[in-house]
Amino acid sequence: MSAGDTVIIRVTKVDKNGNESSFPAGTLFEAKVLEGCLGGELLSSDNRTGKYLANLTQPFYFIVDKNIDSTITNIEIKVGAPVSGYLSYDDSFNNVNGKIINASMNRVKQTKILKKQMDSDGCSTSPFASSSYDYARGNVGGGCDHLPCYTNNVPTAPTIDLKPFNNRDICNKKSGYAFTDYNWDGKQEFPTQPLDFVKSFNVCYNKNLNRWILTLYTDPIQTLKFQYEQDYCWNKINVNWYNKYQRYPIIIENYKSFVVPSDTNERALLKADLEAHQKYPISPDRIKKYVLKDFIIAHENGHADGLRKIINDVYTNEKYLEYFLNKFNYSCSKLSSAKMAQDTALKFLQTFEQKLIKAIAAEYQKKVLGSDIGDRERLDSIHNYSVYNSFMKRVFKKFGFTFVPVKRWWL
How far apart (Å, rounded) are the C-alpha atoms in residues 27 and 56? Predict the structure, then answer.
């Protein structure tokens, strides 16, 4: 760490086998500075500061004093967590494999197993309540050895995944997206924006390789999650059916709990409407009364699979995976301090992000926005043919009908 740095303190659960996992959102922690009292202060996510803080939620931080004394080289912070109900063993399990939480500072994992012990007051007289705790330690100073890799870290490229979100009503939104002007049942948009992976990373120095190692502390670790919007447009379904029949359709929210009508004519109509779902798009021209929400969601998820393929193809085939592995390749002679390594890593990630987004956006424009809407529907339907058939087979069986698959899911 260097003067003025803001350092994230990470806390994870550890099971009997040493596997780490995240605490549930909203878990409350406490933290206390034990060593380096004049080196800085703790900072909570709600902007409280001090040498001791309780009721902390992740993320919380240590702020290194801008005018830190040159004699201060070590910072030690005791972090406590409530573990009852989270782990398969309690905090009395105390042999060498018995550390049940892991705290790290500057994203440097400690290898030393610490047993419970009595601490002095440290930098605050406030009592420390947690019986389960660990110690986050960091170094203040210059050279490469001040930020060592505590395990044999090697360069590892991140994987790619998608994360859906919906903070806007995309069903009613007008934009240049290909699906926007269609009054259909579901909609998807991809703004090609990754989550904030640049804000959470670690560099450490592997002495054996004489190389700085870059790790993204995403959840899960080393995963770039691209966000996209997806929604089920029930309002447009209601409007379209009402305009044609002067009544709203029956939307089957969950086929597993849906009660099949006993009337023979209604059962025949339900079966015919379910069969009509196999010819997309869903519209009142073919489906008279019963609309299956689960299938619409499955259809939109099929587009997500197509989107995931586009992103992964760009990432893998256009050498961005190799770019990540090979471009950030610096020895201690090139980056001789932790501060230089951290600053270089940040610039590298910002450039990497911009290049990757630009390449994915270009491919998305070519494969999706620049193509006929029917082409994309046909391609994604072919890709997910077996998935759709398996799903509809389960629905027909639950309703007591015989399922006869169509050869194509698109007219």
Answer: 8
Kindly tell me if the per-residue pLDDT of 11 is higher than 60.
yes
- The gap between the terminal CA atoms of the chain, to the nearest Å, is 62
pLDDT in tens, 105-137: 543 333 232 233 334 567 888 988 888 888 887
From the CB of residue 202, how many other CB atoms can be counted at a distance below 10 Å? 22
Q: What is the pLDDT of residues 190-211, one digit of tens each?
A: 655 555 555 678 888 888 889 9
Inter-residue contact 79 to 9 (CB < 8 Å): yes
Nearest 5°: CA angle at 295, between 393 and 193? 135
Q: Answer yes or no: are the C-beta atoms of 287 and 269 closer than 8 Å.
A: no
- Can the peptide bond before residue 249 be classed as cis, meaning omega within 30 degrees of 0? no
Kind and range of the H or E run holding 190? strand 186-194
CA 180 to chain centre: 27
Q: Of 316, 341, 319, 338, give the one whose Cα is nearest residue 328.
A: 341
- pTM of the prediction? 0.56
Which tokens belong to 13?
Answer: 């659960």
Is the C-alpha dihedral spanning 387, 391, 392, 394 positive or negative? positive
Hey, what are 339's tokens?
């501060």
pLDDT of residue 399: 95
Residue-level pLDDT at 259: 94
Q: Mean pLDDT over residues 54-77, rounded?
A: 82
Domain ranges of the chain: 6-141, 144-411
Amino acid (1-letter code) at residue 202 = N
Instruction: Give the single-character DSSP code of 148.
Output: B
- Residue 229 near residue 166 (C-beta atoms within 8 A): yes
In whole angstroms, give the CA distance from residue 27 to residue 334: 41
Asked if 162 and 228 count as a contact pair (C-beta separation under 8 A), the reply is yes
> What sign for the dihedral angle of Cα 99, 100, 105, 109?
positive
CA 307 – CA 327 distance, rounded (Å): 27
For the chain, percent of residues with pLDDT exceeding 90:
19
Go through 70-109 and write b for each residue having 16 or more CB atoms within 10 A of its CB, e for each that does not.
eebeebbbbbbbbbeebbeeebeeeeeeebbbbbbbbbbb
Strand-pair partners of 258? none
Q: DSSP letter at 332?
A: T
- Write out the H or E segment, with its range, that includes residue 346: helix 338-364
Neighbouring residues of 372: CB distance < 8 A, sequence distance ≥ 6: none
